[in-house]
Specification:
heterodimer, A: 383 residues, alpha/beta, four-stranded mixed beta sheet, elongated, B: 368 residues, abc type-2 transporter like fold, 2 domains, 14 helices, 5 strands
Amino acid sequence: MHILRDPRSLIILFLMPVVMVFLYGYAISMDVKNIGLGIWDADQTPESRDLVSRFVHSGYFIEKGRPANPQQANDAIRKRQASAVLFIPNGYGRDLSSQNPSPVGIWVDGSDANTASVIISYVRAILATSASYRRMGILPMPTPGLETSHSEEDWQTRASASGYSIAPFSIRQKVFYNPELKSSHFIVPGLVAILLMMICAMLTSLAIVREKESGTFEQLLVSPIRARELIIGKVLPYLALAFLVAVFILTVGHLHFGVPLMGNLWLLAATLLIYLFCALALGLLISTIVASQRLAMLMAFTTTMLPSVILSGFIFPIRSMPFLIQLITFLVPARYFLSVLRGIMLKDSGLAFLWHQALVLLLIGTVLITVSVLRFRKTMVHL
Amino acid sequence: MKVVLSLIAKEFRQIRREKMMLRVIIGMPVIMLIVLGSALTTDVQHLATAITDLDQSPLSRTITESFVHSELFDVLQYPATPDALETALQSGTASVAIIIPRGFARRVSRNESPEIAIWIDGVDSNAGLIAGGYAANLLARTSRDIMVNASSQSPPPEPRFKILYNPELESRMYMIPGIVAVVVLMITSVFSSMSIVREREVGTLEQLMVTPIKAWELLLGKLLPFMIIGFLEIVFTLLLGVVLFSVPFEGSIVLLLALSIIYLLTTLGVGLFVSTFTSTQQQTMFFTWFFNLFALIMSGFLFPIANMPILLQRITLVNPLRYFITIIREIVLKGATWHDLLPQISAMFALGSALFLIAVLRFNKRVE
């Protein structure tokens, strides 16, 4: 077992999960804040200033510059001083009560499409609290996730043209399984899946390829060891190591981040083993294809790491992906393992909800191992 | 110079001997472009939704319809009871559930403000947060429409949005320039560090050192091939992005290529640096991989830097990828000039040359 002789690698192996939990836990935040907003107020009336203050006090926008013509507005965005520019036309305040009020204009930097669409939805929500709606007696419903400042005055002015003295109906939101919406609760199970994939697939493939590279593999082959024994001997140490790392991450997640472990631990351990089997099979397959360690690493990276991070539903919701990519995700073992893991840990789901996921995992593993053993035999015959 | 050239030729011969190598160098950007370019949308869409309508009135049906017609929600099932609804959440077949209570429409008309319940599967905390917000927004709009209809005035005009640079708001336009930077970082840092350490592992590096080749010639011979590969990789991946994914190229290609060379100096510096304190390829792989992962998360490639806590934002300042990602995005999408990018360029240059210098010094020390 080479890896035990290499303390540096071992340290990294156990340090990495912790660093990753912290980095992911803090760096991943999809809600967009501190958006630089250029303000071009061509109206300069109490009404327009009220609108500006609604933007600045929303908690999402920070005033960045006061462009005064279209050229300056464009420049502010091109030079990344602002991500959006709000334009309030001359006459905005005067026309508010008329039948044809003038619309405000918003320039948005579209280069980051995700941020841009978030900005657009914020703008709409803030405008819904603006004077024009209040004048009609129309109240925005308090929206979870968006601070729309409701002053007392807002609630008083609702005396209404519409005949409703309160909003027609209200909303009660209840969050299941992760009531405080803590991101560590969904990142820790994801990290387990990813790191296990990495350790099993990457390390196994590297271990075998290393022996190929240095020529010791041929020595093993001519010795009376059988192929099956050889594979098991190569694979078992990494299986044990990976299992250990998984327990380590789960313990850190449970004790330090308070990630719940609601479900049956035996069920968890059993599915963990099935997943490890899948990952090891993938590693073996890679090792039968490539001949050098640097290639094995890049291959393992593109075929295991990337899909486990991106196509598993770890961070990016699968249902938002294009249909074709969604089909590809059915081939990613991490996808199934992740939903099993989250189900057991957070929802206390039993076998009744999870058996088909586990079955697919088993199937993928069996196919992979069959293909790699076949390829492996072929290499042995060639030698 | 002759020595360097023959060393370079040697390196390329080694690369060519590995048949898979070329496939990886070409295949990796293609796969990453296709998968990352289209899968990486943090946009939450097509949320699996279940609605239990206990009211069955015209108003409750209007609300259900508003979810059915929204692109953000896919209403997949209509469980008859709240219990069945909870089972749908538990099994993961729905991540948002809406319950319209009995007598809803009647109580709305009596101005009693009844409650609609939104249940969210909080397992994916980000998606949960966004899903809750979307559902509440949609219901708020319905509520507003009811009030607007009841009053005699016309609603205020819609704001006019003008979207610059990516009018269709396609996230791949933003992702693809970033992918170019990431692919090149991975390939050059992995190959340069691994190839040096491999020679050390096999013992051929010592053999080269006892020959009259000077240290700088050796270094140049080791790094130039990967510089060339990295450069071609940038051109190839960009070309692919422009031709296959119709990413517009607004800026100066000469400027971008010139800055790529500074960037490559940085990534090769990382590889060289790692190789000076590792002794086996496995170790090297760990360190390089660790660095890549760190650089990826902290670069703004996927997660906007402005959203991170201040401490993490400071850490991103030492990440070379952060600067190049901004540079390539701004040049490709907005046609930025060197003047616009001066802060990024100078930071990357300072960081890159410092890193490279330290790595070379450490390498020379080890060689001697």
